[in-house]
Amino acid sequence: MSRTVPFKQVDVFTSTPYKGNPVAIVNCWDLDESTIEQSTLQSIAVWTNLSETTFLFKPTNEKCDYKVRIFTPKAELEFAGHPTLGTCHAYLEFSGRKNVEKIYQECALGAVELTIKDKKLSFKGVKTDVVSISSDLTQEYTKCVTAPLVTEPILAEVGPHWVVALVEDNKTCFDMEIDYELMTKVAAKHGTTGMIIAGKFPDSEKYEMRAFAPAAGVVEDPVCGSGALALARYLQEVKKFDSSYEFEISQGGRLGRQGEIKAAITHSEGSIGYHIGGQCISVVNNGEFLI
Amino acid sequence: MSRTVPFKQVDVFTSTPYKGNPVAIVNCWDLDESTIEQSTLQSIAVWTNLSETTFLFKPTNEKCDYKVRIFTPKAELEFAGHPTLGTCHAYLEFSGRKNVEKIYQECALGAVELTIKDKKLSFKGVKTDVVSISSDLTQEYTKCVTAPLVTEPILAEVGPHWVVALVEDNKTCFDMEIDYELMTKVAAKHGTTGMIIAGKFPDSEKYEMRAFAPAAGVVEDPVCGSGALALARYLQEVKKFDSSYEFEISQGGRLGRQGEIKAAITHSEGSIGYHIGGQCISVVNNGEFLI
């Protein structure tokens, strides 16, 4: 227990320190992953107390640049959005690689493609399945939110399983309240992560979004990458875009944050891609973490 | 927003990483305190997401070695136990001072005396007032805990305001459940921080302790220094020791921690002192924090 490894804590979806969503990155590149117990990684994620802590390893998939394992204080995740961007940002700083346009991240969900452009990182969704919800469950989810839902909620399976729906506009989304106890029960019964609610700004291609996962111990996530992916997939389902569409998302205002997300739905050679990105800033650098 | 200051994250009340209670220390020694907004310090404490984040400054009281300001994600505190030990530990490492026996910490509650002995740090309680509780409120607090209280609860004002009581033994304390919703209401109504419940091990001078502050956003604190101070003060009130008494406290087992606290009640020249200590270990070292 006397070895140390490099450590960073990165703010994601912002260029202003403390206004985004933090993720802790423990750089285990020089350690043999098989020598580290799962329980140790879980204990560290409990101890940092952040929504996610990630562990960076050498890739085992030769197509990938690095491997990441993502932990909440409760469990290991297959994939998560803001930890993917924060870990890629940290990987680029740790490795000193410059002028790179594409990075491939190995994680439990598979290889995730990341693009670097104009100081912004974005990832392409690997899993973007949608599943309709029974009318009984739809009614229950509707009761969890004080504002009327203006679209039918759908389940988007993007790693986390988010139930997504729209409300009237951005202001309605910002102002609405949530019945956390009811949502905890409904999400647990349905086996989902929680709800993503968004409302469009009247005069621009921009949405106000909020993410709730009380059953997973996160009442409201300040800025949520997988939630943005779920929203993009949902908008394609509802609006049936037949060409590429870009939009912005603001999130976290109710929690004192100012998260800024860039989303893109690309149509290319018959296939549709979903891309979620934003800026990152390393707030804690050069840390040495005792592991 | 481009300056950086030294940063550590210290585990308190343990010598085993991740088994104690973490505190983040932002070393602002070289900054002019008047140039840093209260809102910036509060934003940082929200962002780290720890129960406490501390900011180390040059002392303004010439008797003291350093000044600390202590923030939860919700507010600034006059005093807190584990952040005091963690900050003193970090101060000693930052300053490189060795072979020191006494350190004086300036904080909003006044000058706190710390003693270093056998690799353990301890602080002496500055404020240790006790106040009896009305029978109506006593009944309400009693209902918050599933195990019967075997002593009358008393309010100990030690910085935080803890309502303290004993249950039958250590096992009862470990196993009991809490009605968080009720406790949140009762604590808010009474203007207190929460409850400290302890039970004695049958054959040793050791207590199992648990600390609950749901109204302050901390459902159960893993290892609580001010709670230990409140317990020591309470035991003096209940047991009327007429000479010095030392005891140990274990805490955090229900949360996967193994906190170890050393407590001492000293009688000297007619005055009674309360001392709370334990080991600390810096898990994140050499960090550079963007402030």
The domain tally of chain A reads 2
Low-confidence stretches of chain A: none
Number of strands of chain A: 18
Helix content of chain A: 10-25%
Secondary structure tally, helices of chain A: 6
Mean pLDDT of chain A: 96
Give me the CATH superfamily of the largest domain in chain A.
Diaminopimelate Epimerase, Chain A, domain 1
Query: What's the CATH class label of the largest domain in chain A?
Result: Alpha Beta
Q: Quick one: biggest sheet of chain A?
A: 18 strands, mixed
Q: Roughly what fraction of the amino acids of chain A lie in strands?
A: 35-45%
Between the first and last Cα atoms of chain A, what is the distance in angstroms? 6 Å
Q: Oligomeric state of the chains?
A: homodimer
Q: Rough shape of chain A?
A: globular
The CATH topology of the largest domain in chain A is what? Diaminopimelate Epimerase, Chain A, domain 1
Protein name (chains A, B): LAME_0H03884g1_1
GO molecular function (chains A, B): isomerase activity
Organism (chains A, B): Lachancea meyersii CBS 8951
Active site (chains A, B): 52
Written overview of the protein:
Chain A has 291 residues and is of the alpha+beta class. Chain A has 2 domains: 4-122 and 279-290, Diaminopimelate Epimerase, Chain A, domain 1 (Roll); 129-277, Diaminopimelate Epimerase, Chain A, domain 1. In chain A, 23% of the residues lie in helices and 40% in strands. Chain A is built from 6 helices and 18 strands. Chain A has an 18-stranded mixed β-sheet that branches. The N and C termini of chain A lie close together (6 Å). The model of chain A has no long low-confidence stretch (mean pLDDT 96). The interface between A and B is medium-sized, with 30 and 31 residues. β18 of chain A pairs antiparallel with β18 (280-290) of chain B.
